[in-house]
Amino acid sequence: MPVYNKLVRDLIPQVIENSGSRFSTRILDKSEHLTEVKNKFYEEMKEFEATDNRKDALEELADILELIHAALPIFEATYEELEQIRIAKKEKRGGFNDGVYLIEVEDA
């Protein structure tokens, strides 16, 4: 039996059960959950980096967004709060839409 030891989507046990396979799971405590969300985020970022087409890129971005939604309750935060912070940072420093690539800065 393959051993995964990783965070999976909440309905994966049902998918496995419906396929007739056996499995074992456990519910993570808050600190373990955060650690595994971070690990999964890194995994999904690597998968996003490897994409070369629109469909796969959007699938990986959706996974990343789902992980953001999973992390928020761990910090007792809402998506609206996160969005307010994002907007405030964008208003102060801009976004990443223009593709500005900083090469170097000479000290004044």
Structural summary, described in words:
The protein is mostly helical. It is built from four helices and no strands. The protein has one domain. Helix 2 runs antiparallel to helix 3.
Show the helix and strand layout.
Layout: H1 12-18, H2 30-50, H3 54-74, H4 79-93
Helix pairs in contact: 2-3
Regarding quaternary structure, what we see is: single chain
Q: What's the domain count? A: 1
What share of residues are in beta strands? Answer: under 5%
- Straight-line N-to-C gap: 62 Å
Helix-strand topology string: HHHH
**Gross morphology:** elongated
Helix content: 55-70%
Count every beta strand, where a strand is a DSSP E run of 2 or more residues: 0
The main β sheet shows up as: none
Please tally the helical runs, counting DSSP H or I stretches of 4 or more residues: 4
Mean pLDDT: 96
Brief digest:
Helix 2 (30-50) runs antiparallel to helix 3 (54-74).
Keywords:
single chain; 108 residues; mainly alpha; 4 helices; 59% helix; Nucleoside triphosphate pyrophosphohydrolase; MSMEG_1276-like_NTP-PPase_dom
